[in-house]
Amino acid sequence: MTSGSEHCPRVSAVVLLLLQRLQQEVVSAESSLLQAAASRPLYGRAHCITAVLQRLPLGSLTLTEQWRSVVSKLIAVCYRMSDIVSPVVQSSSPEGLIPMDTDSDASAGLQRILQEIQPRDTNDFFTSARELEPQAGDDPDQHDKTKETKGVCDGGEGYRVTAQMVLVCCWRSMKEVAMMLGELCQSLPLQYNHVDEAHTGLVTEEQVEGVGLYFRQQLLQSRHRGAFELAYVGFVRLTEMLCRSGSQSLQKLPSRWLREVLQEVKSSDPSSKLCATRRSAGIPFYIQALLSSEPKASSCSLLKMTMRELTSLAAPSADQDDKSSTVSQVHALNILRALYRDTRLGENIIPFVSEGLQAAVLGFTSPIWAVRNSSTLLFSTLITRIFGVKKGKDEHSKKNRMTGREFFTRFPALYPFLLSQLQEAAVTVDSASGVVKLHPSLFLLLLVLGRLYPSPMDGSSSPMALAPFMPFILRCGRSAVYWTREMAARALVPFVLVTQIPATIQTLLQDLPSEPRTKSQQNHIHGTLLQVLFLLHSYQAEAHRPLQTGNCIGHTLRQRMWLASRQNCCVVTRGAFLDVLQCLCGPLAILLPDSEVLELRRETLAVLAASELLGPCGPPTVATASLLSSLGPGAVQYLLSLTRVALSASLEGPWRPLWAGTRLLESVLRGPLYEVRELVLDGLLEKLDEEEVEEQEEEEEELAQERRSWLDKSTLFTLSSLALNETHPQCLAKSLRVLCRLSSHGEEIPWRDGDQQLSHIHVLSRLLSLVQSSAHSVELLCDALTLASRLLVQLVTSDPQTLCASDLPTLWGRLVCGCCGDDHPAEVKLAVTEVLVNSTTPLLASPTLPLGLSTTLSLWRSLLTLLQDEDQEVRDSASDFISHVAPHLLHSDVAGVSVAPSVALDQGVGALCALLVVWGQERAGLLTLAEWLLGDEESTRETAGEIPSSLDEEDEFLFEKGELNLWAEPVQWARLLHRHLIALTATLGPESRGPGKDRLHTLRIQVQALTLDAEQALEALPGPLPQFSCAVEHARLVLRQARATLALDVLERLM
User: Fold this and answer.
1) How far is the C-alpha of 898 from the C-alpha of 1, rounded, in Å?
2) CA torsion sign, 970 to 972 to 975 to 980?
3) What is the pTM of this model?
4) pLDDT value of residue 97
């Protein structure tokens, strides 16, 4: 639309026409919202009006009086639209509401629904429980929230109206109302008087203030998040306009509205209209919009006043039973959370972080769940605001931490607060009594302190030194609550300098009992061991740790080896002690001299040999249930600790001379617990990853075989048996992955099931059966298919005759092709892509055609389909097949180089046509590729009379996309394939045109019928411009016609 002033009357006519149609739809919606949602939704016309208003030439408007009348009508119709849809979006449960209609025919059967989900606009949810009373004689079929409305359109079509459709109609209408009102107030000139000077405009001050009051009502009372979030966008436009307007009265409105809403929040009670559920709904948005409109160059007086009021309300009141103060506290916590998250407030909000964190921590002491819930959300927001967004998978990474000196310098008020709160919480930690005492704020305090680390400038003389916190953190390690002990151990690490870690570990170990007869509490022992373990991990991860000096850690530890043996009745502390041993004896054994490490390893292996995992009473003679029952609580954790020690001893070279001759790895692989087997398999995968890196660096196969000395035939037998008999899905998938990795490194897998030797054909059959039954598990499906593919490639090389005599190649090809559709996850398609790329040389591009023409062409089609996949990673991975194709089948400029997926697609079709010549299958291949031009078989079977109607589809739901690929271009793909097929037909001699005439004739008749059907269906589409009125169906028929025309051209050349 041209924005010149000469077109202003034309724009006005368009707006008036749209307004007239919108008013008609509003009248219809006032009678029946269900029918409006089904056939005449309000938001479409409103959106068009807003779009037209955005193109108005505001600097040169004519027909001012006419435009003022239009603006008044627009504001009035917006209010009417809002009145219609407000009962839904302001309901306590808008997601399931179908409102009452005045049309009795359309509203029949909805009374029951309305009684069940009627709006409850009160905040009395703290003490009152709601129950629905069942009514006798209810028909279950009447409980369906689907309603058919008839006779809405001229043709009398039927519409399926669900609560979801009504809700979407309502919140979209509310969105368009907000956007239109915001556009009117922000863009149109304002009419006001200023110092005896009149400013002409299209919008009056009274109208602007009325719009502001409307937004206030919507934001403070709407329950649907989409509704109040979009109302917020329109309200922001309004507040921005108010601040820069020349009217003094309008400039004062944000301040007045802000004070009014704060007063309403302060005086909230259970009967208030403000929504205290749904995180206070639109109240935070309303206050955010008012505060963000304050000029940045100002003194931020509104922000300061608001934060003082909110932090005061968020603090716990003396009277915990006062319901009014409880509701106000919930609102204050929710509003504070929104303000701390608002990036537009920038650094202006930082001075109030201390008060917000104190309110969040103290909120956990409230007996009201709603207060504690809001405090949790506020605390999480403040952690992100203080330490930044998590920059990796490890939430304890140093990237999201700061020094204690920096933290308490930025927030000095938190130093005495956190210290006093920690001291108060530590007093309640006393496991000696056997009574679990958990201070409400203890977890939060330890979480904050765990994000700090000591500064080199931090010392005991500093007024904000971290040392005063240490005694209380150490005491928290005695808690009877497991996670409290772990959090205390994690929080201790930042308070110990790296130079002091060895001495601190020595002190902690000396606190442990040296004899089993002592009366020390197991909780205290476990907390101390966890603190030692976390300090060891920190010391090993420190790049600038000091040089090793003499210490007595090894001697002290050996004196307390009874804690890892059966003399210790608590398996939890046994496991913690074993973790400490594994950390000190592992590959990073840097804290002890070599002689002490060797002696400690001997004693550790002795404990391992006598344990329940490997001892005479251990598996496989003892069933899993009896083993866990005999060990008691913490048995799984203890067995996993034993497994970590056994895994370290099995895979790391320095341990090997100490256990030579013992089948340690085989024993743990046969463990009774799936957790044990899964941990071992994870360790094997990590070991293989490390060896791959070393092989890439050294590129010496002999060294690689030497490094894999941990792998013997007995272990391979155990792994193959595990892959064939494992019942746990994750363990099964990982065992298959380990075997696949070993196979790719040249290891010959001896397939055995117990004492029975299995042939590769039998194993392939079982793996393919596993693929067929693994649709529920993506991980298992990918690993089983990958290993089966490697085994099939081996059989093609070693025993092709036996393989071809079975139907396994056909089954494998069908399974691979079936995993390439858009309905499969990206992980599955990536696995299939890897399979096809690795199979290119031995199968797809082999001159001997080992799988036959039909299966090979199906695999090629799957590969070309993956090159057009929606996911870019899948396309890029599939394009790697180019490096596995013989150079003489490709253009000289792409052979041996990486290419884009689009280039790989073109080269792939060209290579396939060249392979058809090599195989001597030009004519049969041409007919198959001509069928590819027609697309999927389902689309070829459709006729013009079988076009599905969206209204008749029972399984079609709102917003359901189905299988959708926005990257693929089927017309371009059909033209590319047609170009290569035409080039291939030109190379055919007369002797190649004879065979297959019957198939060619049948296919030609089918394609001609499809072409005719597509033409007739296009002509039958309604309307003068079906590409607009029936865009989806028109595009589908045009594509079908283009495909059929290209296929017919190829077939004509073969005649």
Assistant:
1) 46
2) negative
3) 0.77
4) 59
If one counts every other C-beta atom within 10 angstroms of the C-beta of residue 36, the result is 27
Using CA atoms, how far residue 455 sits from 149, 386, 402, 995, in Å, is: 71, 17, 9, 84
Q: Is 147 helix (H, G, I), strand (E, B) or coil?
A: strand
Backbone angles phi, psi at 1035, to 5 degrees: -65, -40
- Measured CA to CA in angstroms, residue 1031 lies from 43, 147, 1021, 1026 at distances of 21, 28, 10, 6
Nearby residues of 458 by Cβ (< 8 Å), 6 or more positions away:
403, 404, 405, 465, 466
Is 69 strand, coil or helix?
helix
Query: Hey, what are 376's tokens?
Result: 């949790």
Quickly tell me which residue has 């996670």 as its tokens: 483
Query: How far, CA to CA in Å, does 201 sit from each of 69, 189, 518?
Result: 12, 5, 90
Q: Are the beta carbons of 451 and 383 closer than 8 angstroms?
A: yes
Specify the pLDDT at position 455: 67
Where do runs of H (alpha helix) occur along 411-492?
Answer: 414-427, 442-449, 470-476, 482-492
Contacts of 197 (CB under 8 A, 6+ apart): none
Give dist(CA 685, CA 765) in Å, integer.
25
Question: Collapsing DSSP states into helix, strand and coil, what is residue 753?
Answer: strand
| Token duo for residue 895 | 């052979």
Question: What is the spatial distance between Cα 1036 and Cα 946, in angstroms, rounded to a whole number?
Answer: 13
Q: What Cα–Cα distance (Å) separates residue 52 from each residue in 24, 481, 556? A: 19, 64, 82
Residue 461: the pLDDT is 52
CB 581 within 8 A of CB 554: no
- Which residues 6+ apart lie within 8 Å of 928 measured at CB? 853, 854, 857
Question: Mean pLDDT for each consecutive 10-residue tract of the chain (1055 residues)?
Answer: 55 86 89 79 88 74 78 91 81 60 43 39 39 40 42 42 76 87 83 66 85 85 70 84 80 88 81 69 86 76 90 80 75 91 86 94 89 92 88 68 85 92 86 68 90 67 73 89 90 85 90 80 92 90 67 86 90 94 81 83 88 60 67 88 89 70 78 89 90 67 55 85 90 93 84 83 92 90 94 89 87 92 90 94 91 93 93 93 88 78 92 91 89 66 39 43 73 92 83 66 89 89 78 88 90 83
Helix axes 225-244, 163-187, angle to 10 degrees: 0
Sign of CA dihedral 893, 899, 900, 903: positive
Which residues face 452 on adjacent strands?
A: 402
The two three-digit tokens of residue 946, written as one number: 């079988």
Q: Which of 669, 690, 558, 671 is nearest to 618 (CA)?
A: 671
- At 74, give phi and psi (nearest 5°): -65, -45
Q: Give, in degrees to the nearest 5, the angle at Cα 467 between 462 and 472.
A: 145
Write the single-letter amino acid at 610.
A
With vertex at residue 989, the alpha carbon angle to CA 985 and CA 994, rounded to the nearest 5 degrees, is 90
d(C-alpha 811, C-alpha 728), whole Å:
25
Integer Cα distance of 396 and 50 in angstroms = 48
Give SS3 for 402.
strand
**Residue ranges in 252-322 assigned as alpha helix (H):** 253-266, 283-292, 301-314
Segment (H or E) for 197: strand 197-199
Q: Are 958 and 168 in contact, with CB atoms under 8 Å apart?
A: yes
Rounded Cα distance, 607 and 615, in Å: 10
In whole angstroms, give the CA distance from residue 120 to residue 910: 68
pLDDT of residue 768: 93
**Inter-CA distances, 296 with 292, 314, 331, 346, 635, Å:** 9, 26, 26, 10, 60
Separation of alpha carbons 453 and 966, rounded Å: 48
Taking the C-alpha atoms of residue 354 and residue 347, their distance in angstroms, rounded to an integer, is: 14
Nearest to 243 by CA among 196, 171, 297: 297
Q: Which amino acid is at 521?
A: Q
Q: Can you give the pLDDT at residue 361?
A: 94
- What's residue 109's pLDDT? 34
